[in-house]
Amino acid sequence: MNDQTLIGSLVVAAVIALLIGFFVRRLVTGWRNRMARQVELIGNLPPLPDSVGPVLTGPTKGLYVGSTIAPHWNDKVAAAALGFRAKAVLTRYPEGIMVQRTGIGPIWIPDESIVAVRSERAIAGKALTFEGILAVRWKLPSGIEIDTGFRADDRGEISKWVNEEDV
After folding, report:
1. How many domains in the chain?
2. CA–CA separation, 44 vs 143, rounded Å?
3. How would you classify the pairing of strands 86-93 and 57-69?
4. Whether pTM exceeds 0.70
5. Does a structural domain hold residue 51?
6. pLDDT tens, 112-123?
7. Residue 90 belongs to what domain range?
8. Rounded Cα distance, 50 and 77, in Å
């Protein structure tokens, strides 16, 4: 390889690195702006209860997909750490639903806040070819309704959650 080819290759590599850095910075800036817009809209999440009754459904292992502002399946919530995907365990108690996420704090959905529990094909940027995402629509203390998405490791578990609501 001669000197001109080496210099040309280094210049191209530097330009590509700068472009990648520029686009990553734009993504981070966009995410921060979304969080800033949603902080007041979302408000504080419900506090965890001191104690809960017996387990009604679950625990179901899977993936916390994220939360969206209802009814828009792709309007992802970034505020209150609701926008980060994580392995999770979903458990239903008489007082509500606990989403115990790995590496992030848990989400408590009080029973009186739950509007609907259904299966979906897509939520929060996660799309499947089948209805394999459990979507819990609930009302935040701020009055905003959001959908919280959960994909179970075992697809058969979803029917237990959806059928329980029909009873």
Report:
1. 2
2. 11
3. antiparallel
4. yes
5. no
6. 999 999 888 778
7. 57-163
8. 27
